[in-house]
Amino acid sequence: MTGSFASPSADATVSPQLFAPGLLATVLDGFNVWKGLLTLFIAAVIYDQFKYHYYKGSIVGPAYKFPFMGPFLQSVNPKFHEYKAKWDSGDLSCVSVFHKFVVIASTRDMSRKIFNSPGYVKPCVVDAAHKLLGKTNWVFLDGKDHVDYRKGLNGLFTRQALSLYLPRAEEVFNDYFKRFLEKSTANNFQPTPWMPEFRELMCALSCRTFVGYYMPDETIQKIADDYYLITAALELVNFPIILPYTKTWYGKKAADMVLEEFSKCAAKSKARMAAGGDISCIMDAWVKAQLDSAKYREKIAKGIQVDSSEKPSQVLRDFTDFEIAQTVFTFLFASQDATSAASTWLFQLMADRPDILDKVREENLSIRNGDPTVPLSMDLLDNLPYTRAVVKETLRYRPPVIMVPYLVKKDFPISEKVTVSKGSMIIPSVWPACHDEEAYPNADSFDPDRWITGTAEQQSKNWLVFGTGPHYCLGQTYAQLSLMGMIGKASMEMDWEHTSTPKSEDIKVFATIFPQDDCLLNFRPRA
After folding, report:
1. Where does heme bind (predicted)?
2. What is the torsional sign of CA 168, 169, 170, 176?
3. What is d(CA 111, CA 428) in angstroms, rounded to the nearest whole number?
4. CATH number at residue 417
5. What are residue 60's phi and psi, to 5 degrees?
6. d(Cα 144, Cα 122) in Å, to the nearest integer?
7. How many CB atoms lie within 10 A of CB 227?
8. What pLDDT does 69 receive?
9. Distances (CA, A) of 25 to 2, 30, 43
C-alpha cells in the first residue's frame, strides 16, 4: 500500500461505469434537439392542462382542454344551441381559449352581480377591441375616470336632445323605405334576404343621428358595407394578434377608415357650431357643450362673475377631433349590430303576426288623426303604448346582445364556493334572464300584451337587454324610440310578406343574433 491516492473518476475505464446505470446517462443517451423540443412541448401541454384545472375548480366545464387553443375552432363559428347548453349546464360554466380563461354566468342574479361589481370587473368587449377602438377610448376607462367621462355624455341622450335628432331619423326612413319598395319591385316581389338591408338602414340611421350631414351618402354606404369586417373582427373569440389578411386585420383597416371619416365630421361640426349653427346631430350637441364649457372656464379664469344659471350642467374640457371620433365610433359600435338584429326580428315577427301589425298600424294612424305624413315627435312617440310594447317584447323575445364580456381586475368571489381569478374573462348572460318563466310566463311566446296588461314592466331585475350598473347602455331610450318610429312608419306606408323556412326561427350568432335564413321578405306599397 502506498501513500498516494488516485481518483477513480480520473481512470477512463472506471468513469463511464459510474454513470452507466444512472438516470442522467439514460436521459442524455441519444439526446438531440428534436427530443428537447418534444420534451418542452409535453411540459407545456401538462402546464396548460394544470393551469386550466386550477382555474376551473368546481365550475362546470370540459374535463380537458384541447392543447393551447381550446375550443377556438368551434368558437370561430359559434352556435346558439351551444351557448344555450352552457346556460343550461349550471349557474356558472367555463372554457379556456388560448391564454384566456372564460367563465359564463347563466342566472339573472349571477349576471346582475357581475354588471354591478365595478370593483372587481370592467368591460373588456373582446381582446381585439383595444386594437380597433383604440386603447385610449373612453369605454375602457375605469372607476371615477369612466364616471366623469360618462357624465359629459349623458346630456346627449336626454328627451330634449333626442327630439332634435328625430328629423334625421324621419329622413332616413323615407329614403330606405323607398329603396325597399324599389328593390322588391326589381326582384319581382320574390323572397329576398333582408337582413343586409336592415344593417345598411340602421348604419345610415346611426350615422345621420350621430354626425348629421357632415358625412356624404357614399361614405355612409362604404361604412355600411365595411362594418361587416369590424363585426367579424370583434367576435367573442378571435385570433389574439393581428396578422395580415385575418379577420382582425381587415377589421382594423375598416375601423381606421371610420375613425378618419368621423374625425373629418368633428372638424366640420366645430366650425359650424362656432359660427352659431343649430344642433342637428349628437356630434353637434357635444361640440356645443364643449364650446359653452370653454366660454364658462374663460370667464372664471378672468375673474368674471358668472350667474349659476349660465354654468353648464357638466363643465367639459376641449376634445380633439380624434377623441370625438373615437367616442362617436363607440356609439356606432354599440348601436349598429344590436339595432340591426332588433329591426330584422321586428319585421319578421310583424309579418308572421298580422293581427299584431294591424294594431300597430291602427295606433300609429290614430295618433296622427289618420294622416300618415305627420312627422315623428317625442309627444307622438310618448302616446304609442302598444307600439312600445311590441318593441320591448321583441327585445325581450330576441335580445340582440346575449352576452357581455367583462375582464376580472382582481380575484372575484362570484359565489361562496367560486372565486374567479384575476385576468379571466367573465360573461354575464342576457338571454336566460329574458326567458325566465317566473318573470315572463310562457317566455318562449311572443306576447306584447304582457307589457300592458301583464306584469312584465315590474320585472326590472330581469330586463338586462341594455345591461345594468355603471356601464348600462347610454342609448337605450334612443334605440327603443328609433325602433318604434321605424315600425310605426313602415306599418302605415308598406305591406310586407315573410317567406318562412325551417331556419326562420333558428338563431345565427354574429356578434348579435339574427334569423338563420337572414329573413326572407318582400315589400309592397299600401294602397
Report:
1. 473
2. positive
3. 4
4. 1.10.630.10
5. -65, 130
6. 12
7. 24
8. 86
9. 34, 10, 21
CA-based end-to-end distance of the chain? 126
Residues in the chain: 527
Kindly state the cell numbers that stand for 193.
334576404
* C-alpha–C-alpha distance, residues 98 and 69, integer Å: 4
* Residues 83 and 382 sit within 8 Å (Cβ to Cβ): no
Answer for the pair 115, 463: CB distance below 8 angstroms, yes or no: no
Print burial letters for 77-98: b (CB count within 10 Å at least 16), e (below 16).
ebeeeebbebbeeebbbbbbbe
Residues whose CB falls within 8 Å of the CB of residue 438, separated by 6 or more in sequence, listed in order: none
The verdict on residue 110 lying in a domain is: yes
Q: Which residues, including other chains, have CB under 8 Å from residue 386's CB and lie 6 or more apart?
A: 359, 360, 363, 448, 452
All 3 cell numbers of residue 343? 329591426
Residue 358 inside a domain? The answer is: yes
Name the DSSP letter for residue 60: B
Is 22 part of a structural domain of the chain?
no
pTM of the model as a whole:
0.89
Mean pLDDT of 328-337: 91
Tell me which residue has cell 378618419.
Answer: 260
User: What DSSP element (H or E) covers 57?
Assistant: none
The answer to whether position 91 is within a domain reads: yes
Report phi then psi at 433, rounded to 5.
Answer: -65, -35
Q: Which of 263, 255, 166 is nearest to 214 (CA)?
A: 263
Q: Which of 63-77, 167-181, 312-326 has the lowest mean pLDDT?
A: 63-77
pLDDT at residue 521 tops 60 = yes
Residue 265 annotated as binding site: no
The label of the residue with cell 311590441 reads 390
> What's the Cα-to-Cα distance from 3 to each of 6, 8, 10, rounded to whole Å?
10, 16, 17
